Amino acid sequence: MIKQIFAVLAGLAVAAPVNATSWTDVNTLTDLVKQTGTTVEARDCETEGLQGFYRYDQEAGIDLLVVCKDNVDMTDSDAVWEVVSHETTHVMQACMGGPVLKDTYVPRVLRELQETAPHYYQTLQQYRGDHKRYELEAFWMELRTPDVVQGFLDRACFAQAE
Fold it and tell me: Residue 156: which of 98, 81, 87, 85 has the closest Cα?
């Protein structure tokens, strides 16, 4: 009987969701993004469903990450984290001049999204070409822990400068 109880508790521990992200996680990532030279803003976007965007135009001097506060629950650190980590992936891609993940990882990432976040996998089907690849990485990054996202950002944007 004791073994069965421990087995059930162990199963629950494995099935428990990853710790929720905190405001400290959101702020730390935002501060790191700012260190790349990117401006970070929370503002009304007035486009239904748009939660955030990243715009980079070197010629125009634009390097901007936006969280759309009219479409994101700004009192929910997890909701804000998802947008910031997603858009931070696009910052990483700008730093790298292309994809963040190796091509060989793409099939695994697609499978992971299909199995663990089917809504992201379905959304991804709307995209084509390089845009689909970039969004794949961004959706996948949303599901990573803060330390993993920060590590990717460090390698993409800061390690190359050394």
Answer: 98
Q: What angle do CA 144, 146, 148 make, to 5 degrees?
A: 60
Handedness of CA 27, 28, 29, 35 (dihedral sign): positive
Model pLDDT for residues 102-132, shown as the tens digit of each residue: 999 999 999 999 999 999 999 999 999 999 9
How far is it, in rounded angstroms, from Cα 16 to Cα 30? 27
Give the HSE-up count for residue 87: Cα atoms under 13 Å, Cβ half-sphere: 29
pTM of the model: 0.86
Q: Which long-range contacts (CB under 8 A, 24 or more apart) does 18-23 make?
A: 18/145, 20/77, 20/78, 21/77, 21/78, 21/81, 21/146, 22/77, 23/77
Q: Which residues, including other chains, have CB under 8 Å from residue 123's CB and lie 6 or more apart?
A: 135, 139
Token digits of residue 7? 């087995």
Rounded distance between C-alpha atoms, residue 35 and residue 126, angstroms = 32
